[in-house]
Amino acid sequence: MARSAVADGIRSLAATPHVRDDYPTTADEMERALEELRAALSAEGIDLALMPGGEVALERIARLEVEELRRFGLGGNDYWLLVEFPYSGWPLGLTRVAERLADDDFGIVLAHPERNPDVQAVPSKLQEFVDDGMLVQLTAASVDGRLGKRARDTSLALLDLGLAHVLASDAHAPSIREIGLSAAAGAIGDRELVRWLTEDVPAAIVASAPLPERPARP
User: Fold this and answer.
1) Residue 59 lies inside a defined structural domain of this protein
2) What value does the mean pLDDT take over residues 85-100?
3) 178: how many CB neighbours lie within 10 A of its CB?
4) 114 is in which domain, residue-wise?
5) Residue 112: which CATH number?
6) Model pLDDT for residues 14-63, shown as the tens digit of each residue
7) Coil, strand, or helix at residue 199?
8) Residue 146's pLDDT is what?
9) pLDDT, average across residues 159-181
10) Based on the structure, what is the number of domains in the chain?
C-alpha cells in the first residue's frame, strides 16, 4: 500500500485505524504499530511520511478520556478528530457529541457520509453539521465510482454544494479499495479544487490552523 501511495503521488499518509466496538484500538496500540511501520518503510527505502490518527465511532467517544482522544487526532493534530459517519440511519446524537467535544476543544471531520442512504437521498442535509463547524471527508473510491453510482453522485453533489473539505483514500488493503487519489481527482476535474481537498485543507488540519478559502468553482 505504501509503494502504491508513493506511485500515485501521495507524500504523506495518516494512519487511521478504526476505534470502535469491533476494533477497540487503543492509542498505545496505534502508536506502537505506527512506529513499527515507519521502521519498515525506512528499511525498504519508501519515501512516505506516516502520521498518527484514528477513525473513531460515535459510540466510543464518550468512553475515551480526553487525552486518549487527543492522541487519535487526525494527522497528529491536537484539534480535529476523524469521526465515522454511520453507514445507515441518521446520527441523531452527533450534534450533542460535537458540543461535548467542543467543550474539550475538539473539532470533527466526518468520514464517508456520502455512503449513508439518508445523505444519498438528500445531500444538503449535511449542511446543518457543516454550519456547526464540522468538516466532511469523501472517500476517493466513492468519488470515482468504485463504490457505486449512488456514492459517486452523492460525492459530486456534496462538492457542488460546497459541503466537502477533504478527499481521502480510506484504503484498507492492497486489493480492496486500493490506495490512491488520482482517479478521484480526475473524476472531479477541477485542479484547484483537488489541490484544496488533498493538500491545502489536509495541511491546515495537520497544523491545527485555519482552513484556507475554498477556490471558486469554474
Assistant:
1) yes
2) 95
3) 18
4) 54-206
5) 3.20.20.140
6) 999 999 999 999 999 999 999 999 999 999 999 999 999 999 999 999 99
7) helix
8) 92
9) 91
10) 1
Beta strands in the chain (DSSP E): 12-14, 18-20, 23-24, 49-51, 55-57, 80-84, 107-111, 135-139, 166-168
Interatomic CA distance for residues 50 and 203, integer angstroms = 14
What is the pLDDT confidence band of residue 108, given thresholds at 50, 70 and 90? very high
Q: How far is CA 187 from CA 65, 139, 142, 194, in A?
A: 40, 13, 10, 10
* Cα gap 52→13, rounded to integer Å: 9
Task: Reduce the DSSP state of residue 115 to 3 states and report it.
Answer: helix
The answer as to whether 47 is a domain residue is no
Domain assignment present for residue 171? The answer is yes
Count the Cβ atoms, other than its own, within 10 Å of residue 69: 19
Assign 176 a pLDDT band (cuts: 50, 70, 90): low
Q: Residues of 23-62 as b/e, b for ≥16 C-beta within 10 angstroms?
A: eebebeebeeebeebeeebeeeeeebebbbbbbbbbebbe
Provide the whole-model pTM: 0.96
**20 assigned to some structural domain:** no
- Give CA–CA dist 186/156, Å, rounded: 12
CB atoms within 10 A of CB 95: 13
Phi, psi of 3, deg, nearest 5 = -65, -45
The predicted model gives 172-193 an average pLDDT of 90
